[in-house]
Amino acid sequence: MELVRWMAPIIIVGLVFALIVARQITTLSLGEATATGLGQKTGRVRAIGAFCVVLMAGGSVGLAGPVGFLGLVVPHLARPLCGVNYRWVIPYSAVLGALLAVAADTAGRAVLKPQEVPIGVMLAAIGAPFLIYIARWKMR
Fold it and tell me: Is the pTM of this model over 0.70?
């Protein structure tokens, strides 16, 4: 609980800022030109959005360890399967997250028999390169 007391304010600040800019982020998802045409300052919205992501993702990884990568990676895996409609992305993410956790745990048990690699290490080994790939792909 001591860790939760330290991380909760950080996560709450990120969540509050995310709720404040939620409408602008939705507008930004329509495209840079559309958002600019509607009078939005896209650079500022992107900076605030990035700030929110860093606070909330950092707080979750700080609490849960590398298992927090699961919540960052899985929605990106779900979108190509079901599209961008969040009524489908969320349930697909739940199922894919469970499958990825089981796969990482199974791989962690098989990699260094008779020892085990912790699931957080396996998820970080899967999640970090995938997030780097996603970031580079979005930059192109």
Answer: no
